[in-house]
Amino acid sequence: MPNRNATPSAVTEAPSPSATAAAAVSLTDVAVRFRSRKRDVTALSEVALDVRPGEFVAIVGPSGCGKSTLLKLVAGLLRASSGEVRLGAERVEGPRHDIGYVFQRAALLEWRSALRNILLQAEIRRMPAAQARGRADELIRMTGLTGFEDAYPHELSGGMQQRVALCRALLHEPPVLLMDEPFGALDALTRERMNTELNRIWRDTGTTVLLVTHSISEAVYLADRVVVMSPRPGTIQEIIEVGLPAERDYGRTLGRPEFREAAGHIRDLLGAVQAHD
Ligand code: ADP
Ligand code: MG
């Protein structure tokens, strides 16, 4: 388990550490170009990023700068036009099953209960039933869904649906969890609660997280480092070390100088366009 209680440090322009076999996720000089008859789009260019095992990295940037594309590369749903993507020591060359993926919409099956939606992951992976059930129960407890195991998606609030999606993504204990604006559709209060839960789950499970978000405060609240991307063609503009202790708390974290400094710096980088976060 990585040490998540490192002493806070100042906001720095942290250069990406050189690629090592120890990185949970690494992108080396990655570019993605989409070619169609009508136009060529360079979605990502010169992207280099090493994510440490157990690290929480948030990715922010203007719409269309390639954030979703970056996650799809890591998941193996998309191939880089050039450069290299690795998960642990392995080169990503096709869809990966050792990751969890959470999207903006929970994408639950309406005809399955919460528990059966979570267990879908086990069925797809042919996990032993007892092991899957035990793990599902643990995640249900962890995410505060106890008592709602038999509820159908339409009986659950948006926040609860997203918790079910999170449980499903974590069922097989993936070393890497990819989240693409998972809380964007939730109201502010639910989003705060989900952030607090995600912080706790991350600390409890030791999973490596890559989170795409439009919210600067969400990024700083949750992450060890925040990757700020520039508009298309998406490049990494800067990587900000947040320097807050691993355990975050809405009451205290938002008032801390490290939080305000990092959020202010990111806001400056992204400019007026996103300053109304
Ligand atoms: P973001 O998630 O940051 O909003 P995306 O990664 O979805 O951005 O997209 C980055 C750019 O690549 C956008 O200009 C988008 O239109 C383009 N793009 C994404 N996927 C495809 C695709 N499959 N074919 C062509 N262009 C694409
Ligand atoms: Mg996107």
Task: Give descriptors for this structure.
277 residues, alpha/beta, Rossmann fold, 6-stranded mixed β-sheet, 4-stranded antiparallel β-sheet, 8 helices, 10 strands, globular, binds adenosine-5'-diphosphate, binds magnesium ion
Describe what this molecule looks like in 3D.
It is a single chain. By secondary structure, the chain is α/β, with parallel strands linked by helices. The chain folds into two domains: 17-98 and 174-276, Rossmann fold; 108-173, no CATH class. Strand 1 and strand 2 (40-51) form a beta hairpin. It has eight helices and ten strands. It is globular. Helices cover 33% and strands 22% of the residues. Bound molecules: adenosine-5'-diphosphate (ADP) and magnesium ion. Residues 67-68, 180 line the site of magnesium ion.
Name the CATH class of the largest domain.
Alpha Beta
User: Which class best fits the helix and strand makeup?
Assistant: alpha/beta
CATH architecture field of the largest domain:
3-Layer(aba) Sandwich
Counting DSSP H or I runs of 4 or more residues, the number of helices is: 8
Question: What is the subunit arrangement here?
Answer: single chain
- Helix-strand pattern, N to C? EEEHEEEHHHEHEHEEHH
Could you name the CATH topology of the largest domain?
A: Rossmann fold
Task: Indicate the percent of residues in helices.
Answer: 25-40%
The ligands bound in this entry are:
adenosine-5'-diphosphate, magnesium ion
User: How many distinct beta strands?
Assistant: 10
Overall average pLDDT: 89
Low-confidence stretches: 5-20
Net shape:
globular
- Separation, N- and C-terminal Cα atoms: 33 Å
User: What portion of the residues fall into strands of 2 or more residues?
Assistant: 15-25%
Give Rg in angstroms.
Answer: 18 Å
Biggest β-sheet description: 6 strands, mixed
